[in-house]
Amino acid sequence: MGRRRANSAGSSTSACEGLVRKGDAELTARDYEKALEYYSSALQVKPDDPSILSKRAQVFNLLEKYELALKDAEISLQLSGGQDRGTQFHLAQALYGMRCYQEASDALEKLRAMKSSRDSQRFPSNKRVRKLVELVERRLDEKLHGSYDLHSMLKQAKAMAAPFLDHADFVGPVRVAEVEGCLAMKVVERMIREPQTVAEVYSLFAGEHTPALQPHPAETHELPVDEVRVRNIVRHCSFQMETVTELWIPLSIPDDFEDNKSGLGLWILPSFINHSCLANARHYTIGDFMFVRAIRDLAEGEEVLISYVDPFLDHSVKKLQMLNFVCRCSLCSFAQEHPEVMEFRSALTWLFQRLRPRVRAADYSILPQLQQIIRSLRRTFNTLPHSSFSSGSALPPLELYSPLMGESSLHFLVGNFEQAVSPLLEVFEFLPRLDGIFSNSIARTDVAWRLRSIYKKLGNSKEMKKWTKRARDEFDVMIGKSDELWEKYVGDYAAAHEASIEDELDAFMSFMVHHLILSM
After folding, report:
1. How would you class 208 by CB atoms within 10 Å of its CB: exposed for 0-12, middle for 13-18, buried for 19 or more?
2. Would you state the pLDDT for residue 101?
């Protein structure tokens, strides 16, 4: 009887070792799903084997199932006395994958303090450890200080077919408060793979006919993944991503730029931000990473607002209605209260559209007509408050933007550089920092840089220096501080405007018309 038990135990051990060897072979062949099957089968035979648990933790990490990897690594360390360096490394990797960067740093510090074991075949090379330490330090710097290399992130996004970037989230002094198809399946798959994301996703708005659900994080493992709820959340909370990995519209813009916008993404915290046509923040994506930047100083307790749509597009109201959202910003409120004024402005805008081909042809004879349109538009704003837009109580005369740009370009084309300055100064004075207006998020940067270029033609170095600084200041607010990206912007402008003295006027006109077209 005793011999039979011994044979049975030996047979089980042999079978377990065979399963582990097969798992090792599949791991080497990078078939991680099969390796997982073999290691899991081996653990059914020897559930308390720390070595097999460590191997499975490694596979879970490779499959991006970080919570399961963490669980296996923790159990393995408990069983082995907490001194296996390979398992400790898998633990740190799992914490990094779960974006628990401080905990990952602590795990690596503990790894550093461990005594090396010559018998440990699972200990990673020092190169891999150093690489993870470096990554953790970068993520902590990003998480604590918001220090991002935007230029490098853009290069990474361009080089990847599916631009999923590895960076930490930085959240400034904000809080969430109570205020008035394909992506869905990817979200569902991630919720199944990483159960800890269920509570985050379910906290988002899923439509007025779907009851709110805010599960406690400890309960998320028992919650089923509701595909219908997820689809509703994606419909109401997703953001559009751009396949063009630029932070501003390049001057060599293709005619089908709008068609280049494709793909949706779901970000948890930004999904709580409400819309305003006169937003105080802007958002943009680099790969799968979203930045939300304040574009003016915010008072304590002031709500952060972004623009869901370009308010000057015809479909903007309809799109907002589809999202069960009615904008009550001062622009929309004025439009509802004074439809006759908006109709008159639309008529004047249509007249300017009729003149646009002649602007392109540098027909200076249309200047009186253009100036009359500008005067008529100004009169529609005379009854509005005269307090500054930054206080939130005045409406910026946005409809004047394109006609004034056209007037400046006409003066420039005939060499009246002094006269070309005044319209641009007026535009810079009233044009607020807004995201999405005229499909251009850095319009103030453009205006300031154009003023700099005109003052260069006039030989006024003092004003040229002044407007160079203003352009850079506006750029840094809207995009972020990056010398490399600023140089790219300046080079983009120079390529369009300063190729040669002979064609500078044509290039400048092309640049102006480019923005006139965008604003229509």
Report:
1. exposed
2. 92
Q: Is the pLDDT of residue 219 over 60?
A: no
Question: Is the pTM for the entire model greater than 0.90?
Answer: no
Tell me the C-alpha to C-alpha distance, in Å, between residue 188 and each of 184, 191, 221, 258, 344: 6, 5, 14, 29, 49
Nearest to 63 by CA among 107, 86, 97, 25: 97
Tokens 């249309």 locate to 366
Dihedral of the CA atoms 295, 296, 301, 303 (nearest 10)?
Answer: -40
207, 232 Cβ separation under 8 angstroms: yes
Query: How far is 32 from 25, CA to CA, in rounded Å?
Result: 10
Kindly give the residue spans of alpha helices, DSSP state H, lying in 295-338: 316-322, 330-337
What is the structure's pLDDT at 320?
55
Q: Give the three-class secondary structure for 500.
A: coil
**First and final CA of the chain: distance in angstroms?**
91
| Cα distance between residue 26 and residue 34, in whole Å | 6
pLDDT of residue 250: 45
Nearest-angstrom CA–CA distance, 23 and 311: 57
pLDDT in tens, 343-393: 899 899 899 989 988 887 888 999 999 999 999 999 988 755 433 344 344
pLDDT surpassing 50 at residue 259: no
As assigned by CATH, the class of the 2-145 domain is mainly alpha
335: confidence class by pLDDT, cuts 50, 70, 90: confident
332-519 has CATH 1.25.40 classification? yes
What distance in Å separates the CA atoms of residue 124 and residue 389, rounded to the nearest whole number?
Answer: 58
Q: Token pair of 517, please?
A: 């077209």
CA distance 37 to 39: 6
The DSSP secondary structure of 137-190, one letter per residue, reads: HHHHHHHHH----HHHHHHHHHH-SS----------S--------HHHHHHHHH
Whether 193 and 64 have beta carbons less than 8 Å apart is answered as yes
Element (H, E) at 239: strand 239-242
Name 289's bridge partners: 286
Q: Model confidence over 468-485: pLDDT tens digits? A: 999 999 999 888 888 888
- More confident call, 291 vs 206: 291
Amino acid 389: pLDDT: 40
Q: Break the chain into its structural domains and give their ranges.
A: 2-145, 167-322, 332-519
Q: Mean pLDDT for the chain?
A: 75
Burial zone of 225 (CB within 10 Å; 0-12 exposed, 13-18 middle, 19+ buried): middle
pLDDT beyond 70 at 274: yes
| 3-class SS string, 436-472 | CHHHCCCHHHHHHHHHHHHHHHHCCHHHHHHHHHHHH
